[in-house]
Amino acid sequence: MAMQCSSFKFDIHATEGEARKGEFQTGHGAVQTPVFMPVGTQATVKAASPEVLKSLGAQIILSNTYHLHIRPGEKLIASLGGLHSFMGWDRPILTDSGGYQAFSLAELVKISDEGLAFSSHLDGSRRFLSPEKALEIQEDLGTDIMMCLDECVAYPSTREYVEASVKRTTLWAQRSLAARRSSSALFGIVQGGVYPDLRARSAREITAEPFDGVAVGGLSVGEGHGLMMDILDVTMPCLPAAKPRYLMGVGTPKDIVEAVARGVDMFDCVLPTRNARNGMLFTRQGKISVKQARYREDPNPPDEQCECYTCRNFSLAYLRHLYVSREILGSILNTIHNLYFYLELMSDIRHAISEKRFDNLRKQIKEIYDD
């Protein structure tokens, strides 16, 4: 019989329509949902120390199985006390299994029912990642939430190919459960591309297994916001209400509030950190680009209403100066602001659901970020 995580529990505390506010428990603490997980692919969230992440209110972060396996290696990390000790983070960690990296490095990967044969993007060495190996790596890392290996298909893909990938993802999910040895939580992943019936089939097959939570993968790969929401409309009613629901790799503020309205509990995305490094900031008035010449002499902070360290201490003129001068501090300050914005947005969403005013917040965000 497949092992289940004894310490992982999920409770729903408030709802408004399909939106829900809840909490799940892990071996490294509780997480309030809906939650945004900053992405720390290589055991670090770019331009943000663990201390800064905590000050911003980050509850849980995401790291990546593929990249940590390639460098520095899970056995080294295990020998140094596991991923939490290695990166100096004592709160929960979720690790992605590597399926998305297979998608993004498609030219280097050969996919079969056995797993993923690929060449390292660092040195070209041949590697093989099976569902069992993906679980073994994550167990060595000592993560709190592990993800099954899945096949993320490109958009667009033929129905025939997506149908085969759904079958393969279910097979891999079952093999992952059979290989599980640790008490870390394990989530299954629903695939199916943009084919509603295949999404429903995948959801039925994955939720029939004893996973601790369920993720929706294979979205935000070029299909656009409207089609993404159409697929969520089909998929979410097929997922169990009693388990957390994770929408992988999404997204923009509008994506998030719309997905929360459909019952999603967990999110991750590189947008706040990547955009920060490229000089783009999220504000309560919309996006701004500090690289624009219009901010050269601007004495105002990025967002007058924002309480983050960046907005309390620095002007747009200074942030623009740092960006055009290619100073590292610019990336740091922009990252602090963008992560603060995202984490505050999630806090606002949780409070709004509790106070039955989420629909109003949803409308406000859509008006500001409807681009």
Describe this structure in words.
The protein is α/β, with parallel strands linked by helices. The protein has two domains: 10-269, Queuine tRNA-ribosyltransferase-like (TIM Barrel); 279-368, no CATH class. Helix content is 41%, strand content 19%. The protein has 15 helices and 16 strands. The protein has helices spanning 50-56, 65-70, 74-79, 83-87, 99-104, 131-141, 159-179, 196-207, 225-235, 253-260, 271-277, 309-313, 316-324, 328-354, 358-368; strands at residues 9-16, 19-26, 29-33, 35-37, 61-64, 93-96, 109-112, 115-119, 126-129, 145-147, 185-190, 213-216, 245-247, 266-268, 280-283, 286-289. The strands form four sheets. It has an eight-stranded parallel beta sheet. Strand 2 (19-26) and strand 3 (29-33) form a beta hairpin. Helix 6 packs across helix 7 (159-179). The protein is globular, with a radius of gyration of 20 Å. The termini are far apart. The relative contact order is 0.13. The model has no long low-confidence stretch (mean pLDDT 95).
